[in-house]
Amino acid sequence: MSLDSLLTASAPRTPRHLNMTDSVTTLIGRSKGAVILAFFGAAWVVAGLLESGRASAVAISVVCLSALLIAGVALAQLRRLPVRSGGGAFNRRAYGIINAIQWLLIFAAAALLPAVGYRDWVVPVSVMIVGLHFLPLARMFDKFYYATGLSLMLLAAAYPFFSVLHGIPGNAARILRKK
Description:
Shape: globular
Order of helices and strands: HHHHHHH
Number of helices: 7
Largest sheet: none
Radius of gyration: 21 Å
Helix content: over 70%
């Protein structure tokens, strides 16, 4: 066995469809995504705790500390990766448009649904919108976001069923309850 074959045999392997630059780009994107999702996830959980009346200083502290821990680990991972310069699949303009549309729709839902008597639908409709916004982002970043988006959309669609099962009062539950 030659020295070359020993060196290449022990070298870390990347999947054939990814070159080293692509795998670093993927790790950078996932690290940044983890930071963003940690903080938005914590905000959603705290909002849910506050809305349900189950918020306590301990619960909110645990959620916030968890988000900080996740973000800290992701940022530490990001610091270990080489700095990338140049292009990539990221399109700043498309990203901005996708997020602007998402927030416009969420604010519209938050304003319109209570005005027409469907206050209880603000959260599930917002979750559906967030899930939908992940679909075009998956084309720009990581195919994993398809699963994230579809999972959120399924969760939003299942909301009325959860509210009926858990006896949560409101318009969402009334749709499925017999009168």
